[in-house]
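Format notes (please read before filing issues)

Several people have asked whether sequences and structure tokens are stored in separate files. They are not. Every record keeps both together, in the order shown below: the sequence lines, then the token lines. Line labels are part of the format and must not be stripped during preprocessing.
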Amino acid sequence: MSGPAPEALAEPSRKAGRAWTAALSLGNGAIWAGWYGPLQILLAWQAAELAPPGTPKESVLAWVTGAGAVVSLVANPLFGALSDRTASRFGRRTPWIAAGAAGGAGALVLLAGAGSVPVMVLGWCLVQLTLNAAFAAITAAVPDRVPRGQRGAVGGWLGAAQILGVVAGTGLATVAGTVAAGYLACAGFVVLGTLPYVLAHRDPVLPAERRPALSLRILVAGFWISPRRHPDLGWAWLTRFLINLGNALALLYLLYYLRDVLHRPDPGGGVLVLTAVNGVTLLGTVVVGGLWSDRVGRRQPFVLWAGVIMTVATGLLAGWQTWPGALCAAALLGVGFGVFTSVDFALMTQVLPAAAHRGKDLGVINIANALPQVAAPALAAPVVHHLGGYRMLYALAAAVGLVGALLVRRIRGVA
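Then the structure lines:
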């Protein structure tokens, strides 16, 4: 098509304002609260309550989280592709943020009333479906509106909001008093946190005549981005997948680790303390790491050393199985994951193939966040029960994360 690219498809040149960044970050944090209140606390307690006689609670939790992660694998790129093709007067991304947040809140309410494992599975799958619709749109808004030289900083603020959302979700789940009340509190937070962006900020409108064609064949084909044609994207995806897999292996059974290995009298409170420690150190590095990366114009060294620090942290859980060891691991993990969160996000936006399908491509990239949630339960349960217990689980997590960190050096187009 001839003519200049519309605003929705142009490479942004004007810096994003503070109010826009703050509202987008708040919405991002609210979505993560909706995910991690359940993942850190509520699903584990609910699995222990609803597990049928003779069925380990770990297996029930693995079924529920694994099924939800499978939904997430499909939902993120699907809704990213749909938002790429949305030509509403409210823009491409805002309608999906609003609908996804409202749907996610409704799904959390369903979980609050779940009385059986099948209803748990259904509710969590709906949470993943709807919140991924909102998350795909929020993620795609960054390359839509933020120039490349500012993406480390904006990625840092989004990362800060992410960990604050994790802390908020974990805190709400812990202090609510009951599993049902925890779900309801998370649902309310999701809605309230996304409203400022939805109500106060204009999203660039895609002209109907510039909307890409839509068919089932195109959607399905779009899920595959050839690593041969786009090798930098392939290596960046693999780096993100392996580091996130190591992180997922470390966090999946944290509640059970505190209860069954460290014998903490209040394991739920222990998770909250570790999450808070992790959050403090992450907040100390996530924005600074992104700004520093923008300033020096490099991404790879930050991702590499962040992954190494996270490997050391996970190794502590394997080799120093005490409460002080867990506190040190949480602090180090926050340092590494803070830098990784902001800088890896900026790196990813710089290997996208084209502006017309940023949402879909970022959705495919975000599979590297969701797929570890499928792989981690499948790997963790047999390791804990048959292959050496929690010490071996955390050693495996450290090794996987280190390999991911080293592979970032294979990227050629981003320094």
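For reference, the curators noted about this record: Residues 67 and 125 are 7 Å apart (CA to CA). The two ends are 33 Å apart (CA to CA).
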